[in-house]
Amino acid sequence: xxxxxxxxxxxxxxxxxxxxxxxxxxxxxxxxxxxxxxxxxxxxxxxxxxxxxxxxxxxxxxxxxxxxxxxxxxxxxxxxxxxxxxxxxxxxxxxxxxxxxxxxxxxxxxxxxxxxxxxxxxxxxxxxxxxxxxxxxxxxxxxxxxxxxxxxxxxxxxxxxxxxxxxxxxxxxxxxxxxxxxxxxxxxxxxxxxxxxxxxxxxxxxxxxxxxxxxxxxxxxxxxxxxxxxxxxxxxxxxxxxxxxxxxxxxxxxxxxxxxxxxxxxxxxxxxxxxxxxxxxxxxxxxxxxxxxxxxxxxxxxxxxxxxxxxxxxxxxxxxxxxxxxxxxxxxxxxxxxxxxxxxxxxxxxxxxxxxxxxxxxxxxxxxxxxxxxxxxxxxxxxxxxxxxxxxxxxxxxxxxxxxxxxxxxxxxxxxxxxxxxx
Length: 423
Ligand SMILES: [Zn+2]
Fold this sequence. Notes:
- The protein is an alpha+beta fold.
- The chain is built from 8 helices and 24 strands.
- The protein has helices spanning about 20-35, 70-85, 105-115, 120-130, 145-150, 180-190, 225-230, 310-315, and strands spanning about 5-10, 40-45, 60-65, 95-100, 135, 160-165, 195, 200, 205, 215-220, 240-250, 255-260, 270-275, 280, 290-295, 295-305, 320-330, 335-345, 350-355, 365-370, 375, 380-385, 385-390, 400.
- The strands form 5 sheets. Strands 5-4-1-3-2-11-6-10-7 form a 9-stranded mixed beta sheet, with helices on both faces. Strands 13-15-16-18-17 form a 5-stranded mixed β-barrel. The chain has a 3-stranded antiparallel beta sheet with strand order 20-21-22, with no helix packed on it.
- The protein is elongated, with a radius of gyration of 27 Å.
- It starts with a strand and ends in a 22-residue tail after the last strand.
- The structure holds zinc ion (ZN).
- Zinc ion (ZN) binds next to loops.
């Protein structure tokens, strides 16, 4: 009788090098070499992007194996972590978890908690105990938090895939060798089934990292098939160690939760319905800020310089416009600031200039004499009807997003959502 064993791991890399996806890919191959069947795709699970302990992308790995006992896998996982994790680096605290059977409702809830909020090692230990999850820890072992969340991740509602090609060890730290034109061509032929390959505004290639890690490139897309196709379109000029397709919560907005302003707290990512309260302004450094209000309070919203043209939409907002904002909340000395990832502009106020009317008798400009009345001295004429000029708004209602170069892994690109059409 075949059973399912879930294995999760996290926090194996340091800021300098290593890579969670590489260790995941090695683990998958080692398990296969031992003669076991992997069930489905391995998972690349992004966790709260605002986590202060994160290394780079705050990613954990999980995979499922046909097995009826965790024992043989403890040794496999341990030997791989001891061989490949950056154990000597301060702040690298690997953790691995093994669970026989399917994750409980409680474990699934724990995933939502870790992707949206912060957890503690004690909390992870308690949930592991209650769910009979085996824990393996190195150094401080903080990785058990992400590892546990990764096996609890519920990707049935929404998911994407990423094909990650890893480099041969002798190439690590060297310039990645590929033809950028083939990336643009691949994007032209497969977008939006693949996404975030390039940033059209900056001209940047987005599939290759800039760190010395073992990743050669990663292509994101909506199905495993399109990723295989897209990969074949690339001209790569160095030997590839192997490539692996991961199932992932990237591009799903899993980190965002609908909140009211009075309920926001540091390091969560919120969706807030509100009204623009102040005219947006540019500050030194090219950042744009405005105040948003709902009936529970006010919060500062920010479009930082790297969001480029997105700022040119934000700067056009006017007090009274109704919007829904999406983004990470940070506590600043002046209060909470929401770092915009997306904005839904739902209604725009009419912008008007109110001027004194011309006198109906002599056609000269009348003068304002009190709140409601205008007067012409020459003709002794009164009027209560000012001249009202409507100024057109430069922006339209609709949903706007930051460019790929400023996008977080978890943020869902508008191209993936049919209901995010402008208008
Ligand atoms: Zn007059």
